[in-house]
Design brief:
By secondary structure, the chain is α/β, with parallel strands linked by helices. It has one domain (about 10-145): Nucleotidyltransferase, domain 5. Helix content is about 40%, strand content about 25%. It has helices at about 50-65, 80-90, 95-110, 130-145; strands at about 10-20, 25-30, 35-45, 75-80, 120-125. Helix 1 (about 50-65) packs parallel to helix 3. The protein is globular.
Length: about 150
């Protein structure tokens, strides 16, 4: 999907990240408007909020690669209210050091991406997050394989 997309006026991306505090490998899932699911394994420290911020980074990088025009509206949808709030209210930062670093990195990637389309960050409940469902499947498969 390289090149300019001006025929599509509205695009939706879903993102989700997850992993336990003790897990060194975290997962991120991004679903693009065509329904393609991209799964990322990440070696990062921190809690679920950190994983969510890194999943959002992956979504921003996907959006950047599309070279969208100004008349395209993009919605970035996730189920982590903290990440959504920190992107919508730029005057705030989390106090937890690892989450603070992840949000600062997300903001930096977003600001440097040069995205010119109209982009909004929106929250949905976990059960309505398409990426969350995919992430849950991946994590169930991993747990099943670990017990085999």
């Amino acid at each position: 999907m390289q090149g300019e997309l001006s025929a599509q006026r509205s695009l939706t991306f879903y993102f989700d990240g997850g992993g336990s505090v003790g897990d060194l490998v975290k997962d991120a899932v991004v679903i693009d408007p065509a329904g393609a699911v991209r799964h990322y394994n990440m070696r990062i420290e921190g809690c679920n909020n950190v994983s969510e911020a890194h999943a959002a980074i992956r979504a921003v990088l996907q959006i950047k690669s599309l070279n969208l025009t100004r008349d395209t509206k993009v919605a970035l949808i996730g189920d982590n209210q903290n990440v959504i709030n920190y992107m919508n209210y730029r005057d705030r930062l989390p106090s937890a050091p690892l989450f603070r670093r992840a949000i600062e990195e997300l903001r930096s990637v977003f600001d440097c991406a040069g995205i010119v389309c109209s982009l909004t960050w929106a929250h949905v409940p976990r059960q309505k997050n398409l990426a969350g469902r995919e992430l849950a499947k991946i994590q169930r498969q991993r747990k099943h394989l670990a017990h085999v």
